[in-house]
Every structure is written in structure tokens, then in C-alpha cells.
Amino acid sequence: xxxxxxxxxxxxxxxxxxxxxxxxxxxxxxxxxxxxxxxxxxxxxxxxxxxxxxxxxxxxxxxxxxxxxxxxxxxxxxxxxxxxx
Length: 85
Description:
85 residues; mainly alpha; 2 helices; elongated
């Protein structure tokens, strides 16, 4: 086997062995990381809600500016009264 082929197989072999090790110990690993995953899920939901709220507010502000701009364009200029003497 050429040297280049050995170098490309080594990372795959390491990943495979790591996957087997995790798979074999998954029930133990899951028990230990469950509290972490639960808290991450809560934080992720909070961040997602905050981002959604921010985007909705920005969209509303943009739409308000668009309506105001359209209304300003449609508004007819008021003719000034001509003073007569």
C-alpha cells in the first residue's frame, strides 16, 4: 500500500474505532449527559424565542416605515391660499 493511502485510511480507522467505543458505552454516556442535554434544550428554546421575537419586531418596524412612505407619496400637497388685497 502506498504512503498516501495509509495516511487517508488512518483517520477513518480512528473514527470507526471511536464510534464503536461510543456505541458500546452509549447507555452509560446517555445517563451522564442527559442533564446537560436537557439544559441545552431549554437554553436553545429560549434563544430561538428571543431571535424570533427580534425578527418579528424588525419586520413590523420595516412594514410600518413602508406604509408611512407609501402614504407620504400618495398624499396630495396642500395648496397655499393666495392672499388677495
